[in-house]
Amino acid sequence: MVVTNLAANQARAVLWAQWRSYRNFSHGKWVWLSYVMGALWYGAWLVAGFAAAFLMARAEVVELTVQIAATLLLMSLYWQFIPMMMAASGMALELQKLKIYPIPVSQLFTIEVLLRVTAALEMLLILSGAAVGLLFNPALSGFRALAVLPFAAFHMLLALGLRDAIVRLLGRRRIREITALLFVALITIPRFVLGRTGVGPWLAKQFSDTEPSADVPWLPWVATARMFTGNDPWLASAIMAGWCGLAGVFALWQFRTTLRFDPEAAQSAGSGEVKESKPGLIERFYRLPSKLLPDPMGALLEKEIRYLLRAARFRMLFLMSCGIGLVMAGAFRRGNGPPSWGPSFLTPASAYTLLMLGEVCIWNIFGFDRSAAQMYFVAPVPLSRVLMAKNLAAAACIALSQITTVALCSAFGFPVTAGIVADTAAVIAVVTVYLVTAGNYMSISNARPTDPDSSMRTRSAGGAQMLLLVLYPLVFLPAALAYLARWALDSQLAFFGVLGVMGALGAVVYTMGLESTVEFAERKKESMVAALSANQGPISD
After folding, report:
1. Which one of 155, 168, 244, 414 has the fewest beta carbons within 10 angstroms of its own beta carbon?
2. Residues 162, 300: one domain?
């Protein structure tokens, strides 16, 4: 009893410290907006949970074993892969801060497993709705709703093990980029493999069968579906218990390994004394802005590009944006040529890169600077030049990602033509002008520190998805008007004409916004620097 009370007190102390840390550093003007966006996002999933409850309460569930299994398969893929596609891992314990305290490993492990809820809360809302629906289904006994518990426990444990393994690999200096490439390949290659192997037909079979899949009863989603419907529930329960046991062993193994992992030693491994030599190709690339632009703009732009390309977080997002952009290009591809008036397959792929890179290049441009951002307010260089340099660096990185995406699409046999590339480049250029205008203001009003060595973001995917859902459609309105003009006038000249006008208007808005942002930064500099200097609590958020 004493041990139990002590462990509970330790867990409460961790949560209390996190609450105090969050309360002290979350009084920004736009904090309410994140609450509203989160409420809208999870409110939509709550509605989906009510829909699941309605369907499960009324359906003849016994006849839908395979359909339920297919739905659970989709939920499994979302649970494990969507956070990875957003390069996010959800909230997590700051083990480097906590391991010096006499807290049992079992307590830390339990808290870490429970924090996996933040990585895919959407799926828990759907599962909860399905469970409630089963309670009111007259054809089944209510205790079968408990089948959601082992399914959720399995995925939370598996998500923890995978997260620890990936974060540890991405923390090693020599193999970080290789791991990132393999990580992207894991997500992108299956799209091209499914149609050329037996895996694709097998997945299609899971959705099209009208009889239970007797050939794969050991799969976790099939076993859970059988527990729901009462189709040999005792065997299904034993199978799920086995899966939960395996996931628990894997998660505990990875957690203990991460607890002993020293990220600073891994970062410094192999970084011996640097010998002086002639500038190589990379160094010449870094110095290119200083040669093309006068100081201080050239020096500022060189510094930004150097720091971005050396940041593990940026490189991870860059690889993810290009790789998953290729998958999105395949999803939006229609026929062998561009549509008559709408966007081509390359446009949504490029829009995804804007979403991914926006986190570090647009919406929080001082995040990597952290407390060093105070230098910008005392240096003799105007803050407007600093903002312009950061915006130019963002534009250069976005352009590089577009070039990479085009090269990947060409390599995989997509019908990339000069017209498609020109359309997409014009749209992304105009949209970027409006994005950086809003991003400058947001970077001042909602500044927060970002760890450049942390490849995985600890926020859940919902916030980024809400950003895509609410804000990005607004900045794409100029592009929508251009597509509408091309459809109405059946003229490519009208398309580029509207984009040209919108681009010129965006330049005026950017210039005016730059002046007001500098004035706003002068009023907010103390709170901004304080926010960028803030330290994380025991739970990274």
Report:
1. 168
2. no
Task: Kindly report the pTM of this predicted structure.
Answer: 0.70
Residues sharing a CB contact under 8 Å with residue 487, sequence separation 6 or more, in sequence order: 340, 341, 342
Q: Is the pLDDT of residue 19 over 60?
A: no
pLDDT at 4 over 80: no
Four-residue CA torsion sign, 9, 12, 14, 19: negative
Backbone angles phi, psi at 455, to 5 degrees: -70, -35
Count of the separate structural domains present in the chain: 2
Structure confidence at residue 273 (pLDDT)? 47
Give residue-wise pLDDT tens across range 77-135: 888 877 766 666 666 666 666 767 777 777 788 888 877 777 778 888 888 888 888 78
Residues 312, 167: one domain?
A: no
Asked whether the predicted pLDDT for residue 519 surpasses 50, the reply is yes
Confidence (pLDDT) at 3: 45
The secondary structure of the chain in percent helix, strand, coil, rounded to multiples of 5, reads 75, 0, 25
Residue 115: both structure tokens together: 């924090």
Q: Which amino acid is at 336?
A: N
- Which residues lie closer than 8 Å to 158 by C-beta, 6 or more apart? 80, 247, 250, 251
Burial 135-165 (b: 16+ CB within 10 A, else e): eebeebeeebbebbebbbbbbbbbbbbbbbb
Gap between the Cα atoms of 278 and 339, Å rounded: 50
Q: Quick one: 294 and 363 in the same domain?
A: yes
